[in-house]
Design a protein that fits this description.
The protein is α/β, with parallel strands linked by helices and 415 residues long. It folds into two domains: 233 residues, Type I PLP-dependent aspartate aminotransferase-like (Major domain) (Aspartate Aminotransferase, domain 2, 3-Layer(aba) Sandwich); 124 residues, Alpha-Beta Complex (Aspartate Aminotransferase, domain 1), CATH 3.90.1150.10. Helices cover 45% and strands 13% of the residues. The chain contains 16 helices and 15 strands. Helix 4 runs parallel beside helix 11. The longest helix has 23 residues. The N and C termini lie close together (7 Å). It binds pyridoxal-5'-phosphate (PLP). Pyridoxal-5'-phosphate binds next to helix 5.
């Protein structure tokens, strides 16, 4: 792989190949990760990276746009078809800039915005006090019910009536359950708030038709393109026509310069792939695998936040196992199972050393793994977490993990 890089820069090449090996031999359970297709990889590494194209199709600030306009329009049209959106902007560099652009487009600095508490599953761009969103806007935060781990829509309603936010953000980075978009919309209408859905994690499941879409109800919906949607790193914003101009202006020239057309080509490919019938099978299997993995973990006495999942994502509180999230993450890293330590709602521990772990099934599903493999993964996780300090047990599990992984090729990795 990558023979030119090997020739020109062997030092860098060695690390790239080690990473390819790691991706091939290990089980990827980080719920925001996936494996893109060879076609998406090719677009990302293509000559489109050479072109500057500030502006939008038909209205550019540089010459030579006849091909770029076709490519970006393809991406926009396919995204509209995939999600049924009125207006789409495919230029955001990633999820965080997309969220920043939405706030910049539709709010004034200092406006009140409602978002989910970060330690209950909200994203850092939903009001982290030291972050841009938290400093520029007055974020007030709703939470999940401490007993059930499920969003408390009555609390959302109460807070909305009390704080009168200009915008309500519904969207989550560590929340395993279905979202009642209609209820959010009703509450927003009662107080005259703009509705913003951040479906970065679940866009692939929405596109695949296995989770409800907020697009018909919400004013603005954004997503990253590299998580369950399985496209290149990047993001997109969908909105009702009345917000189209404000959103486009906030992206360019408000926040970004030249769009990354190689990534936009990758998005066009990703949307075409997601429009195929096979993508529905993938989305359904992601959900089935997550459900099966959750049940298999519960059988092994793992305590799951909200007691399960409706999505691709599982959050486990390891307090009863006596193993903090960080130690579990390290032991699992050792056996080739990658996931991340994560806070659980109302976590008594710190975000750097939290009580839980977060995991999910998009990447393993893309590799073709099914329920039988989820059972094995649950078993390895249980054995590793029960033996965090036992090197010989961990070494043994690592061998078993590797043996299984070699039966499931990774798209784009030819070693
Ligand atoms: C991943 C994520 C983002 C940010 O995406 P980046 O591309 O990492 O900047 C925003 N919101 C949510 C809910 C996410 O999960």
């Amino acid at each position: 792989m990558y023979p030119t890089i090997k020739d020109q820069d062997p030092t860098l090449h060695a690390s790239m190949m080690a990473e390819a090996q790691r991706q091939k031999e290990g089980i990827e359970l980080i719920p925001s990760e996936n494996y893109v297709s060879q076609a998406v990889l090719e677009a990302n590494g293509s000559i489109l990276t050479n072109k500057y194209s500030e502006g939008y199709p038909g209205k550019r600030y540089y010459g030579g746009q006849e091909n770029i306009d076709v490519i970006e329009t393809l991406a926009i049209d396919r995204a509209k078809e995939l999600f049924g959106a009125e207006h789409v902007n495919v230029q955001p560099y990633s999820g965080s800039p997309a969220n920043t652009a939405i706030y910049f487009a539709l709010l004034e600095f200092g406006d009140t915005v409602m978002g989910l508490k970060l330690d209950h599953g909200g994203h850092i761009t939903h009001g982290l006090p030291i972050g841009f969103s938290g400093k520029a806007y007055d974020f007030v935060q709703y939470g999940v019910n401490p007993e059930t781990g499920i969003l408390d829509m009555e609390e959302v309603r109460k807070l909305a009536h009390e704080k009168k936010p200009k915008m309500i953000v519904a969207g989550f980075t560590a929340y395993p359950r279905d979202i009642d978009w209609k209820a959010f919309k009703e509450i927003a209408d009662e107080v005259g708030a703009i509705t913003m859905a951040d479906i970065s994690h679940t866009a692939g499941l929405v596109a695949g038709g296995v989770l409800e879409s907020p697009v018909p109800f919400f004013d603005v919906v954004m997503t990253t393109t590299h998580k369950t949607l399985r496209g290149p790193r990047g993001a997109m914003i969908m909105c009702k026509q009345k917000f189209a101009k404000a959103i486009d202006r906030a992206i360019f020239p408000g926040l970004q310069g030249g769009p990354h057309e190689h990534a936009i080509a990758g998005k066009a490919i990703c949307f075409a792939e997601a429009l195929k019938p096979e993508f529905k099978d993938y989305a359904l299997q992601v959900k089935k695998n997550a459900h099966h993995l959750a049940e298999a973990l519960k059988k092994r006495d793992f305590k799951l936040v909200s007691d399960g999942t409706d999505t691709h994502l599982i959050l486990a509180d390891l307090t009863n196992k006596g193993v903090p999230g960080k130690e579990a993450q390290n032991a699992l890293d050792h056996v080739g199972i990658t996931l991340n330590k994560n806070t659980v709602p109302n976590d008594p521990r710190s975000p750097f050393d939290p009580s839980g772990i977060r995991l999910g099934t998009p990447a393993v599903t893309t590799r073709g793994m099914k329920e039988a493999e989820m059972e094995k993964i649950a078993d390895w996780m249980d054995r590793a977490i029960n033996a965090v300090n036992d090197q010989s047990v961990l070494d043994e599990i690592k061998k078993e993990v590797e043996a299984m992984c070699l039966e499931f090729p990774v798209p784009g990795i030819m070693i």
